[in-house]
C-alpha cells in the first residue's frame, strides 16, 4: 500500500506541475519558435501576426513580407534562451542562413541574434523595427 500511495503522490505532483501556468520565458520561447517556423516556411502572414499590434498598425503584411522576402535565406532557427523582465524579453536565437550572392556556392552561415519581445495587451509580441 505504501508504494501505491507514493505512486499516486508522484502522479498528483506531476499533474500539478502540468497545470502550473507557463512562465513568461516559456511563453516567449514558444512564440519565438512559431515566428521563425513561419518565416522559414515563407508563411509571412503568420509571422506578421506575431508582430506587435503597434507595428501592425503602421505596416501592412505586404510591407512586412517585402522587408524579409529577399536577401539571406534562413534555413534554420533555434530558440536558445529567453530572459524576461515584466514587459520585455530578450530572446537569443541561433539562425543558419544561406547568403544570397549570385553564382557563388557558399556554405550555410550560423550566427546568433537577440530579439526583443514585448508584452502588449496581455500577450507577448515580437518587436519589429519600423
Structure, described:
This protein is of the alpha+beta class and 130 residues long. It is 42% helix and 30% strand. It has a four-stranded antiparallel beta sheet with strand order 1-2-3-4, with helices on one face. The longest helix is centred in the first third of the chain and has 18 residues, at 2-19.
Q: Helices and strands in order, then pairings?
A:
Blueprint: H1 2-19, H2 24-41, H3 44-48, H4 53-58, H5 61-68, E1 73-84, E2 88-98, E3 109-120, E4 123-126
Antiparallel strand pairs: 1-2, 2-3, 3-4
Give the gist of this structure.
By secondary structure, the protein is of the alpha+beta class. The protein is built from 5 helices and 4 strands. A 4-stranded antiparallel sheet has the order 1-2-3-4, with helices on one face.
- Multimeric organization: single chain
Please outline the major beta sheet: 4 strands, antiparallel
Gyration radius (Cα, Å) is 19 Å
β-strand percent reads 25-35%
CATH class descriptor name:
Alpha Beta
Mean pLDDT: 84
Judged by helices, strands and strand pairing, the structural class is alpha+beta
What CATH calls the topology is Nuclear Transport Factor 2, Chain: A
Shape, please?
A: globular
Count of helical stretches: 5
Total number of strands: 4
Widest beta sheet: strand line-up: 1-2-3-4
Q: Which residue ranges are poorly predicted, with pLDDT under 50 across at least 5 consecutive positions?
A: none
In CATH, the architecture is Roll
Q: Order of helices and strands, N to C?
A: HHHHHEEEE
The end-to-end span amounts to: 64 Å
Helical content class = 40-55%
Integer count of domains: 1
Amino acid at each position: 500500500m505504501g508504494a501505491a500511495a507514493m505512486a499516486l503522490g508522484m502522479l498528483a505532483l506531476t499533474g500539478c506541475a502540468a497545470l502550473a501556468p507557463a512562465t513568461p520565458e516559456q511563453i516567449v520561447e514558444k512564440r519565438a519558435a512559431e515566428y521563425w517556423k513561419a518565416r522559414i516556411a515563407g508563411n509571412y502572414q503568420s509571422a506578421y501576426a506575431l508582430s506587435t499590434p503597434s507595428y501592425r498598425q503602421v505596416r501592412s503584411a505586404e510591407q512586412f513580407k517585402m522587408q524579409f522576402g529577399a536577401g539571406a535565406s534562413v534555413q534554420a532557427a533555434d530558440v536558445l534562451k529567453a530572459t524576461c523582465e515584466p514587459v520585455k524579453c530578450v530572446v537569443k536565437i541561433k539562425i543558419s542562413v544561406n547568403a544570397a550572392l549570385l553564382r557563388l556556392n557558399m556554405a550555410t552561415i550560423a550566427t546568433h541574434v537577440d530579439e526583443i519581445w514585448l508584452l502588449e495587451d496581455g500577450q507577448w509580441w515580437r518587436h519589429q523595427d519600423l
